[in-house]
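Inverse folding, one chain.
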């Protein structure tokens, strides 16, 4: 299975031209599952994810219900998480993530059940998220990650029988570097947020030797005076433990690196991985 995650940068700059460039990258990559962040939705329900899905022959779900139009009724659009899939899917949960004070934030996780046919491996869970940004916000991201993993672990198996189930795909813009507290705890390099339940990072699991920066000064859309421009912030992961012989990664690479017709698709590079589920 080919899995991609990509922060699409909402409607910043030449967003309409960027949309076409994004669509071209997705068309060429032929992913089976795509987690989207900063994917725009309009008050009437029109969504970038649905437009992409229609053109690419895929299905889409979005966290439209978590958009802020109730608080900002004049807003022409909002950005939310969305998931594109090769097979039909349905939303299990769209949950605002709590901060370190237990207060709900506008950051959220979108969890879907993907109804892949049994002959292709059967249904599985996919979750996309976008955590708090800011170099100093590790406490907030840690709390959000703990909440996210609680939701995902429950979606995989409410009884905690994770070894009996297919792993979930969990991907998105975590806004954290691999050596941060929140990523180390999420991947089991430090004390896990949930005892016995962690994430496997595709980039590391595939033995990539490069840093894999997805927010990079090589990208012309990254501000020249960005506080810290060269970081790996975007991840594709699977949950562990999981059913035997399921969830291993074969490859992981960056996408959306170069302009399409002189248009850089997004300020983030995409991550594309091949995984056995």
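Residues assigned per position:
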């Amino acid at each position: 299975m080919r899995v991609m995650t990509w922060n699409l940068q909402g409607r910043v700059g030449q967003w309409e031209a960027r949309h076409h460039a994004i669509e071209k990258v997705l068309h060429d990559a032929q992913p089976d599952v795509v987690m989207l962040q900063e994917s725009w939705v309009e008050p009437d329900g029109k969504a970038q994810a649905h437009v992409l899905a229609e053109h690419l022959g895929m299905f889409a779900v979005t966290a439209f219900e978590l958009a802020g139009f109730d608080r900002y009724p004049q807003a022409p659009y909002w950005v939310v998480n969305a998931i594109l899939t090769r097979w039909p899917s349905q939303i299990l949960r769209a949950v605002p993530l709590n901060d370190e004070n237990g207060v709900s934030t506008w950051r959220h996780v979108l969890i879907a059940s993907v109804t892949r046919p049994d002959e292709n491996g059967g249904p599985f869970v996919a979750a996309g998220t976008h955590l708090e940004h800011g170099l100093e916000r590790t406490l907030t991201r840690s709390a959000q990650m703990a909440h996210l993993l609680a939701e995902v672990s429950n979606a995989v198996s409410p009884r905690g029988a994770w070894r009996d189930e297919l792993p979930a795909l969990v991907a998105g813009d975590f806004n954290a570097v691999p050596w941060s507290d929140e990523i180390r705890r999420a991947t089991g390099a430090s004390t896990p947020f949930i005892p016995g339940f962690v994430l496997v990072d595709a980039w590391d699991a595939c033995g990539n030797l490069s840093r894999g920066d997805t927010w990079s000064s090589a990208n012309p859309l990254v501000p020249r005076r960005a506080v810290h421009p060269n970081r790996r912030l975007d991840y594709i992961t699977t949950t562990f433990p999981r059913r035997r012989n399921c969830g291993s990664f074969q490859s992981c690479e960056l996408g959306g690196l170069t302009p399409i017709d002189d248009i850089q698709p997004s300020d983030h590079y995409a991550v594309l991985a091949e995984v056995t589920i």
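Residues 138-156 form the longest helix (19 residues). The mean pLDDT is 96.
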